[in-house]
Design goal:
- By secondary structure, this protein is an all-beta fold.
- It has no helices and eleven strands.
- The strands form two sheets. Strands 2, 4, 5, 6, 9, 10 and 11 form a seven-stranded mixed β-sheet that branches. Strands 1-3-8-7 form a four-stranded antiparallel β-sheet, with no helix packed on it.
- β7 (67-72) and β8 (77-82) form a beta hairpin.
Length: 121
């Protein structure tokens, strides 16, 4: 069973930055894709950014140019650097892993518990 543990959420003013981290516990070698998803109150969960085992990255249009996903393969840590945050970025952010890579949550089989990000105007 893959275990994912997120950290780094918090409250920030618009224009600020946060960095989320996700530590993956074995057996992560079976994972071909890791990514970040988010869910705001009253909305469906949506993909934010994913990275596959070859380093290919896909971002949601809403975060392109502001967020950066990266992965430390040696330590099995996934990061999401979030800059120029907006109030509409407020959501619970989830780390996820799966066998196929896309922004669709259906491709992910493993999920963390989530970390809250709140952006005030």
């Amino acid at each position: 069973q893959v275990q994912l543990v997120e950290s780094g959420g918090g409250s920030v003013q618009a224009g600020g930055s946060l960095r989320l981290s996700c530590v993956g516990f074995r057996p992560t070698f079976i994972i071909r894709c890791m990514g970040w998803f988010r869910q705001a109150p009253g909305k469906e969960r949506e993909g934010v950014a994913v990275i596959d085992s070859g380093g290919r990255i896909t971002y949601a249009d809403s975060v392109t140019g502001r967020f950066t996903i990266s992965k430390d393969n040696a330590r099995n840590i996934l990061y999401l650097q979030m800059n120029s945050l907006k109030p509409e970025d407020t959501a619970m952010y989830y780390c996820a892993a799966g066998a196929a890579c896309s922004l669709s949550q259906g491709t992910m089989g493993y999920w963390g518990q989530g970390t809250q990000v709140t952006v005030s105007s």
